[in-house]
Predict the structure.
Amino acid sequence: MKKKECPSCAMMIDEKSKVCPVCQYEFPSGMGVTHWTAIGLAILFILYIIMSVL
């Protein structure tokens, strides 16, 4: 069984755990909505710059 370290309490827990059983730290789950929104806005901004040059 693979283990990962909790950044809050430094306890080694199961890699698949989403919450630390010792300190209740919640591990982030992949890329959230905010991250995808930022990527989308960056792409739109780049397209806007490209279109304004042409």
Observations:
- The mean pLDDT is 92.
- The radius of gyration is 19 Å.
- The chain is about 40% helix and 10% strand.
- The CA atoms of residues 19 and 26 lie 4 Å apart.
